[in-house]
Design a protein that fits this description.
alpha/beta; 6-stranded mixed sheet; 3-stranded mixed sheet; 14 helices; 12 strands
């Protein structure tokens, strides 16, 4: 289990080119015209986690299984999408299914690639997309409000609470405030989640720059970064065109050499996945042995019993204990056996909160 990111933006900002590069496929038709993506393309990308390689070097397993990110390439939104303009609500519906939204913003000049608004303006592009998402949420909430009001008038306590929350969100949306920026009481979050709002989803900005601006950005990306800082949104600077070139290098050593030549420490994909994990508060724990070394993705704060259930329901249902080794101890001591001999294995109960990098053996009985 990893997470899925919806790649959204205006037409011709480089979404499909980026998608092709990230997934190392040509599933998305990266053509120079709007709406070339007729159905959402989904690509699954293995996360590059160096810890997995270190664990494999120690265990020499038959199988190495990383965790994955699903990227969903969603067709370009335009002004009026919430009212059906362009390909409209069809694509707004696709955004509802993703965990996070990656706004791809064009931050490069190129007279050969048309811009839907005939000018490069990252801030305006963001405003167009955000406005359409807010309008879609408003439309959805207004429709819900009609049925909820009837239940609330009949004395339904749950309906009364839901109505208060809906009215609160509508008021903010009408003032241009997305749902993710609204403060909710702890007891309100469950109801908010059920509303399945587009603007409640966490967001990343992707500044798609020219190749020469990949390392330090440019004036366009600086404006985007400043906007992101003001809203608490991370901005990833990358070049979709350059990522496409990187994706064609299949040899890992050659790819690293290519990045070094560009004075880049990591690819855009690596930056994006790290930012995505941080955005969604995700961590990784591992299972390791001669048969398999595997990475498992869970939410930060997940208890051992729930983490065991990621492997199999039986592990959770019959949970006895979680034999846990800290990653650094495992590597330093050279594996599970040495860790046992050194007394570095901790026996944790079902309420233990799993730490990023833990290597765990679950004991269970069903």
């Amino acid at each position: 289990m990893g997470f899925n990111c919806g790649i959204v933006g205006l037409p011709n900002v480089g979404k499909s080119t980026l998608f092709n590069a990230l997934t190392e496929t040509t599933l998305a038709a990266a053509e120079n015209y709007p709406f070339c993506t007729i159905e959402p393309n989904i690509g699954r990308v293995a996360l590059n986690d160096k810890r997995l390689d270190e664990l494999a070097n120690i265990n020499n397993p038959k199988n190495i299984i990383p965790t994955f990110v699903d990227f969903v390439d969603i067709a370009g939104l335009v002004k009026g999408a919430s009212k059906g303009e362009g390909l409209g609500n069809q694509f707004l519906a696709n955004i509802r299914e993703v965990d996070a939204i990656c706004h791809v913003i064009r931050c490069f000049d190129n007279d050969d690639i048309t811009h839907v608004n005939n000018r490069i303006d990252p801030i305006n592009d963001i405003e167009v997309i955000e406005t359409e998402l807010m309008l879609s949420d408003l439309d959805s909430l207004e429709k819900r409000k009609l049925s909820i009001e009837k239940k609330a008038k009949s004395g339904d306590k749950e309906a009364k609470l839901t109505l208060i929350i809906i009215l609160k969100i509508i008021e903010k949306l009408e003032k241009g405030v997305p749902a993710r920026e609204i403060s909710f009481e702890k007891e309100e979050y469950y109801t908010v989640k059920l509303l399945n709002l587009l603007t409640i989803k966490p967001v990343l900005f992707i500044a798609n720059v020219d190749e020469d601006s990949t390392k330090n950005g440019n004036n366009y990306s600086k404006k985007l970064c400043d906007l992101g800082l003001s809203k608490g949104i991370s901005t990833i600077i990358m070049s979709a065109k350059l990522e496409a070139e990187i994706s064609e290098i299949t040899d890992i050593a050659e790819r690293k050499e290519f990045l070094n030549a560009l004075d880049l420490e990591e690819s855009g994909l690596e930056k994006l996945t790290k930012a995505g994990y941080n955005l969604l508060k995700l961590i990784t724990y591992f299972t390791a042995g001669p048969k398999e070394v595997r990475a498992w993705t869970i939410k930060k704060g997940t208890i051992a019993k729930a983490a065991a259930g990621k492997i199999h329901n039986d592990f959770s249902r019959g949970f006895i204990a979680a034999e846990t080794i800290a990653y650094n101890d495992y590597i330093l001591l050279g594996g599970e056996q040495k860790a046992r001999e050194n007394g570095s294995i901790r026996t944790e109960g079902k309420e233990y909160i799993v730490i990023d990098g833990d290597i765990i053996v679950f004991r269970f009985n069903v």
